[in-house]
Amino acid sequence: MTFPNAPIASTEPPRTSRTGLGIGLMLLGFMFFSITDATAKILTRDFEPFQIAWFRQLGLLTIATWIVATRGRSVFRTARPVLQIGRGMAAALSASAFIFAVGYVPLADATAVSFVAPFVVTILAAVVLRETVGIRRWTAVTIGFIGTLIVIRPGLGLFHPAIFVVLAAASLFAVRQILSRVLGPVDRTITTIVYTAISSVVLLTIPTILVWQTPTSLRQVLLILLIACTAGIGEFLIIRALELAQAATLAPLQYTMIIWSTGLSWLLFSQLPDAWSLIGAAIIMVSGIYTLHRERLAARQRRQANGA
């Protein structure tokens, strides 16, 4: 799925408190990101994944330019420039990997499997950040992986190896989230967004030059404009949502992308997930939302301990 540059697990408080509007904007943002993913799948017929990801990131770079124009050059001040650039590299690679995968597997299945990311975040938090993970979160992670296996069903006729590339994309997104946790206490959210957009575009420019194919039809040009615009609008809506409501309230809404992607798969590609895929997706959603809930409680306990 299209992962936002904005760290949706940010602990930075909202600038105002208008939760209802924030929820509405977040839902719209993920709808636009689902359209971005569907457009990427169409473009894989004509262009290489790196080039498509580059087009997509240009839309996000537009939002970064708007942030710099409205907030000033102070957004470039960072305490951890290497980690900021590393987060951008992870963004570029995760976008390219997901786009490659949706060229081979149904969009709805790829989106559902990509939500293994919160479970990978939990594992990385325990291993890398040395966070204490209780039995409830480990249970949710295990159940979530079972749901993922139900969707993937390796060894069966409908299985395609490209689904493992989705897992790689989700793991790279999890790395981004871990870096967001490290950067959160020292850098502003808008700083992270700007660095991620710029560094990902710069990184993708190199392979894009090597595989470049010039658009030759109006249809291709319009699809390129669509993927850039929907990615940019989606990012803008999510940034605004995070300014209006708590990230902990908004984070579970990302699972609506499974609904959007299922509808778009049916409308655009005549692909519908079967019963087992729907069951697996439901398990992933429930265990993922519970994992986010436990993450929120753990974050609250850490803040209370630091304030003590």
TrEMBL record:
GO terms for cellular component: membrane. The keyword Transmembrane helix applies. Keywords: Membrane, Transmembrane, Transmembrane helix. InterPro entries: EamA_dom, EmrE-like. It comes from the Bacteria. SUPFAM superfamilies: Multidrug resistance efflux transporter EmrE. The chain crosses the membrane at residues 21-40, 52-70, 82-104, 110-129, 138-156, 162-179, 191-212, 218-238, 250-269, 275-293. Residues 21-152, 162-287 form the EamA domain. The keyword Flavoprotein does not apply. PANTHER family: ACYL-MALONYL CONDENSING ENZYME-RELATED, BLR2811 PROTEIN. This is DMT family transporter. The lineage of its organism: Bacteria, Pseudomonadati, Pseudomonadota, Alphaproteobacteria, Hyphomicrobiales.
